[in-house]
């Protein structure tokens, strides 16, 4: 460990955490997040607002949008439009948050890898980078093959990176540090989500994950953004404040 801290402009909020507040008052929610100290956001759901409107709300709050989550079906349904929207938002990454259930097989992951190679090339042409966000089941092993690793191995590193969800890596029985070491530079963004002792979601810094140890290897992993996420906060604003303070104070 050292006395390094996360750069201030690397601490963000993945907006899935704040979906109730966003549904009620999108621009006001972004203002409050900025007041807490967040400098970046990841967009997840638009709540009836256009990309142009969300960009204007973020600009007014002084927040930078770094990415948007876009469902897997968009890869073949006006992918160009999805890329254009991320450009409008000012993001650098377009993120597929999960694979359809029917693709969670060896053949399915290989099909997804082919789709990501194609979509990633189009993203690269537009100055963007395609990322994939993991869940725990992505680390299932079939015939000795970890499903997630198919995407690492079969998609060009220039065309696919990963928004590594730390909770779900651990839930899936793997260690994020191993991925940072074994696949350097592939993980430009993190979902920083903590795990309670009973395995449920927890505010950052209140659970069992050793974030300081994980972040000590983040440079190897290529991490540029640490995005807070809590899938089911009891109080979203308390969660946002607690998690920000924890991230801002971690030494690694």
From TrEMBL:
Keywords: Isomerase. GO terms for molecular function: isomerase activity. Gene3D superfamilies: Divalent-metal-dependent TIM barrel enzymes. SUPFAM superfamilies: Xylose isomerase-like. It comes from the Bacteria. Residues 31-238 form the Xylose isomerase-like TIM barrel domain. InterPro entries: IolE/XylAMocC-like (IPR050312), Xyl_isomerase-like_sf (IPR036237), Xyl_isomerase-like_TIM-brl (IPR013022). It holds the Pfam family AP_endonuc_2. The keyword Isomerase applies. This is Sugar phosphate isomerase/epimerase.
